[in-house]
Amino acid sequence: MKKARGLIAVTVAILMLSACAGQPEFHYVRDKAGTTYFKVPSSFTQLNASPIELYLSGDHPNSAAALLRAQRVWSTAFDQSAEPSVNHLLGSTEPFVYATVHQLTEEQRDAISLNRLRDFVLPVTSQMRELYAQQAMATGQPSMFKNFVLLNDEVMTMDNGARGVRVRFEYQIGEDVQTFDQTAILDEKGATVSVMLIGCQSVCFQKRAAEFDKIESTFKLLRLPG
After folding, report:
1. pTM
2. Model confidence pLDDT, tens digit, residues 169-178
3. CA atoms within 13 A on the CB side of 180
4. How distant, in Å, are the alpha carbons of 126, 134, 214 from that of 130?
5. Residue 52 and residue 109: Cα distance in Å, rounded?
6. Which of 132, 173, 197, 202 has a CA between 20 and 30 Å from the CA of residue 225?
7. Terminus-to-terminus CA distance in the chain, angstroms?
8. CA R_g for the chain
9. How many angstroms from the chain centroid is the CA of residue 179?
């Protein structure tokens, strides 16, 4: 009987280890060109980010502009909510990660700047926030983003001439205050911009900032052969 119980215990332990071994700890992510890399814990659910691209660009899904943008832009999103949704980009009690890589047009290359990197997803600089407020006023709609607070602004210089910014900021969106941490990197050729935006409600962000720092630290550009 003791031997049988011992055998059962060993079998159960082996099965548990096998189950754990079959579940990767992270999602390992690269863009379609293989130039940008990061990883997020497997507890996040990966989402189709196409609705986010349409929202940020304002393009009609069947328009020529949307089709051209799809050729130049790669993106993905991850949500840790029990009910994951792309709508959590701008409001969630759980962490949300959005990442995108843009192949810049010639016009965009000429206009790119550190401030443009700061404003790549949401209005951060005073000029862009003022422009957004003017646009909202012109349409007669209340501004979605209120009570902006800049928490951190870091300029980054990387190997091989790449450069970028990391900004952390707050917005009141509806009744809740959301904290966002954005890293935006311009490659050494000035040809692509890679962006990671992490966000959740401020209470959540304060408790889990160290986790978000770990995710952000994996966000890197990769040098391809040739």
Report:
1. 0.87
2. 999 999 999 9
3. 30
4. 6, 6, 33
5. 23
6. 197
7. 66
8. 21
9. 13
